[in-house]
């Protein structure tokens, strides 16, 4: 585990170094929005690192909207000002890996919103997808198996039903971290899993009935029990 953390930190340091150098290159060459940056191969040779490291760094800057890649054409500076770009890159370089607490808090905020929107916008196809996830979760719980992934599939189905692509994307982004931490801290217990069956059903029925107030309330009930347990794990 220590070796894995060391390698991960080392890779992040290299990536941050490349991101800083890409920023300096843009500034020193006075590249404007829409201007093309050098190719991966050229940047790899210039910075003395592998193309994969350069590619990962570019993809990270694309993710945050600083660069934009066009197939068969290259990678371009996005349509933002220099001051904003430099400020955003400074923030990116300061970013830390999200801890369990921050993931938990983010998930609660997202799911309160997605459940409300899903109750207003859900389609019959969305309801079918949610019910299938519920059945998969219940089956594993009743068989005494871990159902963390099935649990999250239900919540992702709600995010999809919200009809908000940004909220859906944010849920997808934090899901791997949630799964990893749930397994790391051995969440959930058998009692929580059994309670989850009814709590999920209550959320589903509120969304099905298109009752946004009730859907939000049922999500609050679900997470109150679950995350009190999680915080106790972190404290102890």
Walk me through this protein's architecture:
The chain has 236 residues and is mainly alpha-helical. The protein folds into two domains: 2-94, Winged helix-like DNA-binding domain superfamily/Winged helix DNA-binding domain (Arc Repressor Mutant, subunit A, Orthogonal Bundle), CATH 1.10.10; 100-235, GntR ligand-binding domain-like (Four Helix Bundle (Hemerythrin (Met), subunit A), Up-down Bundle). The chain is 76% helix and 3% strand. The protein is built from ten helices and two strands, in the order αααββααααααα. The chain has helices at residues 2-28, 40-47, 51-63, 82-94, 100-121, 124-142, 148-161, 165-184, 190-208, 212-235, and strands spanning 67-70, 74-77. A two-stranded antiparallel ribbon has the order 1-2. Helix 1 packs across helix 3 (51-63), helix 5 (100-121) packs across helix 7 and helix 6 runs antiparallel to helix 7 (148-161). It is elongated and about 60 Å long.
């Amino acid at each position: 585990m220590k070796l894995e953390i060391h390698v991960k930190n080392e890779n992040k340091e290299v990536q941050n170094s490349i991101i800083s150098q890409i920023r300096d290159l843009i500034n020193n060459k006075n590249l404007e929005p829409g201007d093309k940056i050098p190719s991966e191969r050229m940047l790899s040779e210039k910075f003395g690192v592998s193309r994969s490291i350069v590619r990962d760094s570019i993809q990270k800057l694309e993710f945050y909207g600083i660069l934009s890649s066009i197939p068969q054409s290259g990678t371009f500076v996005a349509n933002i000002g220099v001051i904003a770009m430099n400020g955003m890159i400074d923030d990116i370089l300061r970013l830390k890996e999200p801890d369990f607490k921050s993931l938990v808090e983010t998930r609660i905020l997202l799911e309160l919103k997605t459940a409300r929107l899903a109750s207003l916008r859900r389609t019959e196809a969305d309801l079918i997808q949610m019910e299938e996830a519920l059945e998969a979760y219940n089956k594993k719980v009743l068989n005494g198996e871990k159902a963390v992934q099935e649990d999250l599939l239900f919540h992702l189905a709600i995010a999809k039903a919200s009809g908000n692509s940004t909220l859906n994307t944010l849920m997808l982004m934090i899901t791997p971290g949630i799964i990893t931490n749930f397994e790391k801290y051995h969440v959930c217990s058998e009692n929580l899993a059994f309670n989850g069956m009814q709590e999920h059903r209550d959320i589903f029925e509120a969304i099905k009935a298109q009752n946004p107030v009730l859907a939000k309330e049922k999500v609050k009930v679900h997470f109150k029990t679950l995350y009190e347990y999680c915080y106790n794990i972190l404290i102890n």
